[in-house]
Write a structure and sequence with these properties.
Elements: E1 2-9, H1 15-26, E2 37-40, E3 45-51, E4 63-64, E5 70-78, H2 81-90, H3 100-111, E6 121-129, E7 134-139, E8 148-151, E9 155-159, H4 162-165, H5 177-186, E10 199-201, E11 206-210, E12 217-220, H6 234-252, E13 257-260, H7 265-278, E14 282-288, H8 296-306, E15 309-315, H9 323-330, H10 338-350, E16 355-357, H11 362-366, H12 374-377, H13 385-395, H14 413-422, H15 427-433, H16 436-440, H17 446-456, H18 463-490, E17 494-496, H19 502-508, E18 518-519, E19 532-533, H20 536-543, H21 548-551, H22 562-567, H23 571-578, H24 591-602, H25 609-626
Helix pairs in contact: 6-7, 6-20, 7-8, 9-25, 10-18, 13-14, 17-18, 23-24
C-alpha cells in the first residue's frame, strides 16, 4: 500500500508550494508505514510518496531516472514487471534498482505513452518529463488504484486521495451539484466527476498529459476488444481457467499473505489453490451478529476443505460509531453499505498480515450477478408489467440526440430492467427527491447516457457483453474498487486482486455468452432459480476442487442488517441528521420526500433502507468533508 501526490507549476516552485505538498503528503501518511518523502526535478515539479515497502530494492522514492530526465511516483505494482525487466535487459540496459519505477522510465524513454497497453498491474503513477516539460498521469486498466487531480491556477495538482488534494490552499471545498445529483443514482459520483467542484478523477485505462501554459488532454490507452472469441470446447475452457487460476495464485500469493474467505465459490476456489501454493495460508471472514444467517460457519467449512488457517470476526452496530472516520477517509459520499464490512475486515486483517488477497471482480467479468439475467429474461415482447412500466418511464428520459448521436435505439427493455437493478434513485422518484437547485445544476440525463453510450460503442456485441463492458468502467471502477482501496489505505494493508489481472480479464472477455451464463437443460431452475446458471465456467472449475453443494450454493442476501439498525439503534442518528434544522442537505433534497421515506421505514410500511442510507451518507459527507 502506498500513496502519491504532486504539485506542478508553470512558473517556479516556491516555498508555499512546498508547504502545500508537505500538507498533502501528511494527509496520505496512513497509506504507508515508512516516513513520507519528497522529491523534485527541475524547478517546476515536486512530488511526494509514502509506502510500506522494504528498503531493499536499491532505489529511492520519488524516483529519478538514471538519465535524469524523469521524476516518477508510483502507487501499486506491475504484475508483469519481471517479464518487462528481462526483455529490457536483453536490449542491453543495465538496471540500477529493482523498482518498477525504473521499468516505467525506460519504457517512456524508448516508447513514450505508447508503452501503456503493455502494462499489467494495479497502479496509478505520475511521471514528469524534464526535457519535454510534460506531466503524465496514468491509471491501470480497471481503476484498482485511484488518482485525483485539479488545477491550482498556476499549474496542476494530483493525489491518491481527494482529501489530501484539498490540503492545497488553492482549492475550495465547494460541492459539485452535478456529481451529487448522479450520486443518488450510482451511489458514488461517476468519474470523471467528484463531489467537489474543480476536482476530477482520472478514468481507468486513461492517461492525462499536461504542459505548462497548455490545457491538459486525455487519451484512453485500452478498450475492450469484443472481436476476439474463444473457439475451444467447454473442456478446453475449463482447463484454461483452471490453469490460469493456478498461475494467479503463484503470481499474487506470497508467504504471509492472507485471504478474504466468504465461504462462497470464488474465494473458496482460490483459497484452495493459494493454500497449495504457500503451504500455510491464513483466511479471514466477518459475520454480522444480528443477521438472519451467517458467513463464518460457511467460511470455516470452506477453510477446512481448502486447508487454510482461519480467523473469524463479528460486525455489530458499533461500527457505525466510526462513520465520521469512514466518511472522511472515503472523501466522497458513498452509499454501498458493504463499506462497513470492508472497513472492519481490513482492520482485522491488518492485525494479522501486511497483505491480503480478495477475489473481488470475479462476478463482474465471468457473469455472476443476477442482474446479468436481464438479456435472457426480458428480451421478448411479452414483458412483465413491472418491467414494461420501468421501460416506458426510462424511455421518456432519453433524448433523441445526445452528443450528436441518436441513442434511443439502445434503450431496449432489457437495458431498462438492468438499469433499474443497479440504479438507486431514477425517473419520477429522483425528480421528486431533488430540489430545483440541484436539478438545475445537473445534467439530468448523464447517468443513463453513460450506460447508453457504453452500449453504443459495441453495437454488434450481445446484451450481456454490453452490460459487462459498461460495468468495468462504472460499477467495478466506480463502486467496488474505490471501497477496497480506501479501507486498505486506511489500515495500511496491501490488498491484491488476482482475478483482475490482465491475463484473467483478457481470457474472460473472449468467452461466448454460454460459458458465462448458461441456459439449463430440461427446464431445470439452476442455482438462480430462473432456468439459468450464472458464472457457469467458474462453477465448472469449482467442481474439480470443491464439493457440489458449495459450488452451487444459492447466494444468501448476506448484507449489513441496516434495515433493523435504522429502525432501532440508528433511529436517533437518522432523525437528527436528516430531519433537523441542522441538516446540511436540506437545500439539495426535498424535506417532504425525506420525511415520507423516514416515516415509511420507521413504521414498517416500506423498506427504504438503501435510500435512507444514501441520504445519511450524503449528509455525513457534507458535515465531515465539505466543511473545513
Amino acid at each position: 500500500m502506498s500513496g502519491i501526490c504532486g504539485v506542478l507549476t508553470s512558473e517556479v516552485v516556491r516555498d508555499e508550494e512546498r508547504a502545500a505538498l508537505a500538507a498533502m503528503l501528511d494527509a496520505l501518511s496512513h497509506r504507508g508505514k515508512n516516513p513520507p518523502r519528497q522529491g523534485h526535478l527541475g524547478d517546476k515539479a515536486i512530488m511526494g510518496y509514502c509506502g510500506s515497502e522494504a528498503e531493499d530494492d536499491g532505489g529511492k522514492r520519488p524516483f529519478v531516472s538514471p538519465c535524469g530526465r524523469y521524476l516518477v511516483v508510483l502507487d501499486g505494482r506491475l504484475y508483469n514487471g519481471p517479464q518487462l525487466r528481462e526483455e529490457i535487459e536483453k536490449s542491453g540496459h543495465v538496471f540500477r534498482s529493482k523498482q518498477d519505477e525504473e521499468i516505467l522510465s525506460y519504457l517512456f524513454l524508448s516508447q513514450g505513452p505508447q508503452c501503456l497497453p503493455r502494462l499489467n498491474g494495479m497502479f496509478a503513477f505520475a511521471m514528469w518529463d524534464l526535457r519535454d516539460q510534460k506531466l503524465y498521469l496514468v491509471r491501470d486498466r480497471f481503476g484498482q488504484k485511484p488518482l485525483y487531480y485539479a488545477s491550482s491556477g498556476k499549474g496542476i495538482l494530483f493525489s491518491s486521495e481527494v482529501m489530501s488534494l484539498l490540503k492545497h490552499p488553492a482549492l475550495e471545498r465547494r460541492p459539485n451539484y452535478n456529481a451529487l445529483f448522479h450520486y443518488l443514482t450510482f451511489m458514488m459520483p461517476p468519474a470523471p466527476l467528484t463531489a467537489f467542484e474543480g476536482i476530477h478523477k482520472l478514468e481507468p485505462a486513461s492517461w492525462l498529459e499536461w504542459q505548462p501554459g497548455r490545457a491538459a488532454f486525455f487519451l484512453r490507452y485500452w478498450n475492450v476488444d469484443g472481436s476476439r472469441k474463444f473457439e475451444g470446447s467447454d473442456e478446453d475452457a475449463i482447463d484454461e481457467l483452471d490453469a490460469l487460476m493456478d498461475r494467479m495464485a503463484r503470481r499474487h500469493v506470497t508467504p504471509g499473505t492472507g485471504l478474504f474467505l466468504s465461504g462462497g465459490l470464488d474465494s473458496s476456489l482460490f483459497a484452495g489453490k493459494a493454500a497449495r501454493q504457500t503451504g500455510d495460508m491464513l483466511s479471514l471472514s466477518l459475520d454480522y451478529v444480528d443477521a438472519d444467517h451467517g458467513v463464518n460457519s460457511q467460511a470455516a467449512q470452506a477453510a477446512e476443505i481448502c486447508g487454510t488457517r482461519h480467523v473469524s470476526g463479528e460486525l455489530d452496530v458499533s461500527v457505525t460509531e466510526e462513520l465520521p472516520d469512514i466518511v472522511a477517509h472515503m472523501g466522497e459520499p458513498f452509499a454501498d453499505p458493504t463499506l462497513l464490512t470492508s472497513w472492519r475486515l481490513a482492520r482485522m486483517a491488518s492485525q494479522h498480515v501486511g497483505a491480503a488477497v480478495t477475489t473481488s471482480g470475479t462476478d463482474n467479468i465471468f457473469g455472476g450477478y443476477a442482474r446479468y439475467l436481464a438479456p435472457f429474461l426480458y428480451d421478448t415482447p411479452d414483458l412483465p408489467p413491472e418491467v414494461r412500466k420501468v421501460h416506458t418511464e426510462l424511455t421518456k428520459t432519453v433524448p433523441h440526440a445526445y452528443g450528436g448521436k441518436s441513442l434511443l435505439g439502445e434503450m431496449d427493455p432489457c437495458a431498462s430492467y438492468y438499469y433499474s437493478q443497479f440504479a438507486l434513485f431514477f425517473g419520477n422518484r429522483k425528480e421528486s427527491l431533488c430540489c430545483m437547485d440541484l436539478r438545475g445544476a445537473a445534467d439530468p440525463q448523464l447517468t443513463i447516457m453513460l450506460m447508453l453510450r457504453a452500449f453504443a460503442r459495441c453495437p454488434r456485441a450481445t446484451w450481456l457483453d454490453k452490460i459487462q463492458f459498461f460495468e468495468l468502467d462504472h460499477f467495478l471502477a466506480g463502486r467496488l474498487l474505490p471501497r477496497i482501496d480506501m479501507v486498505a489505505g486506511a489500515h495500511t494493508l496491501d490488498v491484491r486482486m488476482p482475478m483482475l489481472d490482465n491475463e484473467v480479464v483478457d481470457f474472460a472477455l473472449t468467452l461466448p455468452v454460454g460459458m458465462r451464463v448458461r441456459r439449463m437443460p430440461d427446464r431445470r431452475p439452476g442455482s438462480t432459480g430462473k432456468g439459468y446458471e450464472t458464472k457457469w465456467l467458474v462453477k465448472m472449475v469449482g467442481l474439480r476442487h470443491l464439493p457440489h453443494d458449495l459450488v452451487f450454493r444459492r447466494r444468501h442476501n448476506n448484507t449489513v442488517p441496516l434495515e433493523s439498525w435504522l429502525r432501532g439503534p440508528l433511529r436517533t442518528l437518522v432523525l437528527d441528521a436528516l430531519m433537523s434544522t441542522q441538516c446540511t442537505i436540506r437545500d439539495w433534497v426535498n424535506q417532504s420526500e425525506i420525511r415520507r421515506l423516514v416515516a415509511q421505514h420507521m413504521d414498517g410500511t416500506a423498506n427504504n433502507t438503501i435510500e435512507l442510507w444514501a441520504l445519511l451518507m450524503l449528509e455525513l459527507w457534507a458535515r465531515h468533508c465539505l466543511r473545513r
